[in-house]
Amino acid sequence: MNKIRVLIIDDSVLIRKILTEVLSSCPDIEVIGTAADPLIARDMIKQLNPDVLTLDIEMPHMDGITFLRNLMRLRPTPVVMISTLTEKGAEVTLEALALGAVDFVFKPKVDVVKTLNEYADDIIAKVKSAAKANVRNLDYRPVKTRDNEAAAVRHQTEAVAKPSQKSQVFSNKIIALGASTGGTEAIKVVAKSLPANTPPVFITQHLPAAFSESFVRHIDLVTEMTASIPKHGQLVEDGNIYVSPGDKHMQVVKENGKYVIHLNDGPPVNRHKPAVDVLFQSVAKCASTNAIAVLLTGMGSDGALGMKEMHDVGSLTVIQDEQSCVVWGMPGAAYKLGCTDYVVPLEEVANKILTLVKQLKPN
């Protein structure tokens, strides 16, 4: 088996050195070069034809977003972004994912050597996953670089119109959705086709806490539903999309005949917090035949066992097909367990959900 050939693009000598050491420690990966800025990288890509790039965002001569936009238009290549764990970093990283980057890793502000080495396994796994990613399935979108103020203006001017007044409706139906790698864009594709009166949608996407608010704003921008990060003990209502905060598991429980959201600060499950399995398993217990489970693109197998539990108690289950996934890890794992009722392309997931909602049976 050929090694995965990686080109590292970062203006920091230290980051280039550490990433080279981390990635070279894996026998399946070969670092074929490093570049201090995108202009140098552009020539190296032509000469070396790497399988995967790691790309910093803030660099001299050309920023990482501009470089990524040009790369995905002219020479689509799997890219893992090097991102800062801040609100501004979250906005720019989500923009990079919208442009076609596969995943991201954090650039620590302090104790760089220790932190990056602690996350060595995660960095290696993301590069390996990126090498298999279906980047050509991501549409090229000419998104302009935005700072927080520009993002707020866009949110106000381009957001999908919401109903002026929403009556409080406590649903007895539940849609639970999980995703990881490639999921930030896939979720937006689904959400944009869900009308305002859709039963509540619970989303667990593998993202850090610093990214949660930005991610919710991006979802709320495209959907008629109302997207938010819920509070512990919040009652569940129709027309809402509830997104797990990046540092807690989200569960649904039934209290006094109504669904209530619980946020769980327990340990990671499947190395993730929030974890899709935690959400799905809670829905299996409280909603059974009155719920739908959906798994979209993502690395690993989180959500597969939870989907099986939902399937076993009579929930309907849907997964994104392999051709439209960036990474078919999570949906593929569920498919192998034999617990998937429907396998559909990403663009058809929302319609499938809306069709199946009519078939749900109160438990």
Overview of the molecule:
The protein has helices at 13-24, 38-48, 64-74, 87-99, 112-118, 120-132, 148-158, 183-191, 209-222, 276-286, 304-312, 329-336, 346-357, and strands at residues 4-9, 29-35, 52-56, 79-83, 103-106, 174-179, 201-205, 226-228, 240-243, 249-255, 258-264, 291-295, 316-320, 342-344. By secondary structure, the protein is an alpha/beta fold. The chain has 2 domains: 4-137, Rossmann fold (3-Layer(aba) Sandwich); 165-357, 3-Layer(aba) Sandwich (Rossmann fold), CATH 3.40.50.180. The strands form 3 sheets. A 7-stranded parallel beta sheet has the order 8-9-7-6-12-13-14, sandwiched between helices. The radius of gyration is 20 Å and the shape is elongated. The N and C termini lie far apart (51 Å).
Poorly predicted ranges: 140-157
Total count of helical runs of at least 4 residues: 13
What is the helix content? Answer: 25-40%
Question: Proportion of β residues?
Answer: 15-25%
Helix and strand string, N-terminal first?
A: EHEHEHEHEHHHEHEHEEEEHEHEHEH
Number of domains: 2
Radius of gyration: 20 Å
Class by SSE composition: alpha/beta
| Largest sheet entry | 7 strands, parallel
Oligomer: single chain
Quickly name the level 1 CATH class of the largest domain.
Alpha Beta
- The CATH superfamily of the largest domain turns out to be Methylesterase CheB, C-terminal domain
Please state the second-level CATH architecture of the largest domain: 3-Layer(aba) Sandwich
* N→C terminal distance: 51 Å
Biggest sheet strand order reads 8-9-7-6-12-13-14
How many strand elements?
14
CATH structural fold name of the largest domain = Rossmann fold
- Taken from the alpha-carbon principal axes, the silhouette is elongated
The average pLDDT is 90
Catalytic activity: L-glutaminyl-[protein] + H2O = L-glutamyl-[protein] + NH4(+); [protein]-L-glutamate 5-O-methyl ester + H2O = L-glutamyl-[protein] + methanol + H(+)
Subcellular location: Cytoplasm
Organism: Methylocucumis oryzae
GO biological process, one term: chemotaxis
